[in-house]
Each structure stands twice: as structure tokens, then as C-alpha cells.
Amino acid sequence: MDLKFLVVDDSVTMRRIVINSLRSLGYNNFVEAGDGKEALEKLTADSEINFVITDWNMPVLSGLELVKSIRSHETLSKMAILMVTTRGVKEDIIEALQARVNNYVVKPFTPQILKEKIDQIIQVA
User: Fold this and answer.
1) I need a surface site. Which of 8, 36, 47, 57 has the fewest CB within 10 A?
2) What is the sign, positive or negative, of the torsion defined by CA atoms of 57, 61, 67, 68?
3) Would the pTM of this model clear 0.90, i.e. be above it?
4) Which long-range contacts (CB under 8 A, 24 or more apart) does 9-14 make?
């Protein structure tokens, strides 16, 4: 499966960390967005994107709002979504899963953890 990732985080540094981790895993196709609103614009403009990695805490449109928007969008609703966030309390994880993220990673993470979560999502799809 040829994956094209949309990496969504308001931190440029964190986007670099995620992209460098993906590169180390052999993935080379990325688009970036600094918030959920920009992410939605890129998703609707680029039909090749098939995997979203998003932070939760962002201005304009949060990661959770982004997930809900994707899930309610007719053509994007089946999109693979991995949330990568500092929010590690059980209630937040449950809320994200109820919004239908495919998987959840608490920062900090290793490339290996990222690989495991991506592989789990791909196997289900």
C-alpha cells in the first residue's frame, strides 16, 4: 500500500520529528498542515492523501475537531487517522476513540511505536 501522509501539528519541530520518523521507516510521501482547518483544505484538494497523523492541541481547529470533520465528510470518512499527542489521560484517549481515530500515540514516541501503530491501522483497512 502506497501511503501519502498528511502530518498535522502547529509545531514545526514536531512535524519534523514525525516526518523524520516516517522517513526512517521508509515512507517518503508527505504533506504538512499547521492546524486542522489547513488540514481539511489540503485533504479536500489532494485525493492522494490516505493517512492523517494529527496532534490534538492546535489553534483554529483542534485535532479532535479535525477527526470529527473527517469522519462526517462523505468522501473522507474512511481516512486512516493516527492521533499523536501529549494528552495521555484515559478520558482523552476514550474521547479520541469515540471520535473514531484509528489509533493513538502519546508523545514522546519512537519510530518503532509509530511503525507499530501505522501497521495496525493498515492491517485493519
Assistant:
1) 47
2) positive
3) yes
4) 9/34, 9/54, 9/55, 9/58, 9/84, 10/34, 10/35, 10/55, 10/57, 10/58, 10/59, 11/55, 14/55, 14/84, 14/107
Q: Which residues contact 77 (CB under 8 A, 6 or more apart)?
A: 70, 71
Domain 5-124 has CATH 3.40.50.2300: yes
Residue 20 corresponds to which cell in the numbers above? 523524520
Q: Residue ranges per domain, the chain?
A: 5-124
Q: For residue range 23-35, what is the model confidence (pLDDT) as tens digits?
A: 999 999 999 999 9
